Amino acid sequence: MTIMRENDFIKRIRSSVEPSKNPLVKGIGDDCAVIPLDKSRHTLLTTDAFVEGVHFKRAYFRPEQIGEKAMAVNISDICAMGGMPKYALVTIGFPKKEKQAFIDRVYCGIIGAAKRFNADIVGGDTVSSPSLFISITVWGEAEKREIMMRSGARPGDGLFVTGFLGSSAAGLDFLKRLKARATGAKELLAVNSHLQPQPRLREGRLLAKSGIVTACIDVSDGLVNDTMRICGESGTGAVIYAENLPVCASTQAIASRFGKDPVDYALYGGEDFELLFTVGKKDIGRLVKLARARSVPVFRAGVITAGKSVLIERNGRKSRPAEGAIWNHF
Q1: All domains of the chain, ordered by start, with CATH?
Q2: N or C: which end of the chain has fewer CB within 10 A?
Q3: For the whole prediction, is pTM greater than 0.90?
């Protein structure tokens, strides 16, 4: 049986779904679906599943952290479109023999994360399941003129990211190899990046209001994969500047400990949930001034090109991404 990559599967679904018979601005192919709300605003809809054994293992997480992360990954999609989260539906499944105290703590984490981002939990479902899973749907709002999509990048645009890359992947690698939550000071930042990701709401709102962002996505499946998604929707290619990528000292320490290249964590590791975005060449100066004035970290990660391929530039040479290293949900 041939293993189907996630991106290919989504393309198959997209080609099979009939055009919407209801008002729709953007359907499949972005961080959120975009639906008209009123004269000045659109509704943003997103959903994500968080499955035990696929996205997390109990050995690494406190119960509250499981719930927090399940909500955070959904909030991050709203941030990537420049919106504000408003409401959430939560479906949770767990084994019949699961202890109620454990489930209460998981749900406490869900509630806490929703409250932190001013999202109201307004319903959902509960179901028996062989293992723990959480599926959350979040809807938010954004001004029409401020919504950032994946499809606006143009050749010559600069490719930027709002923070460190590879931290979550390095933190997960550390947890998997040492089979414990306990960490030293050097590894703490990377491990916490994996256990408790922080959606970039402030950064997303700032970028959306700036009016200079041409495309945006949150880095959920790795820099290379998510750059490919921007390029796929925009009909462009890109060159990623590997030597420019922001990697924190914690990730570097973990890479050194395990004999790995920290840049590989940055290129291929998922779940950083930083914002990856593009800005026209003429507006890069404005971006730098804005980021400095608002104390928002912004790093140059590459450039959008007229081709259709995503290449990695390192030591003056360009090469294609390592196919086997790209994150795949299947």
Answers
A1: 19-146 (3.30.1330.10), 158-325 (3.90.650.10)
A2: N
A3: yes
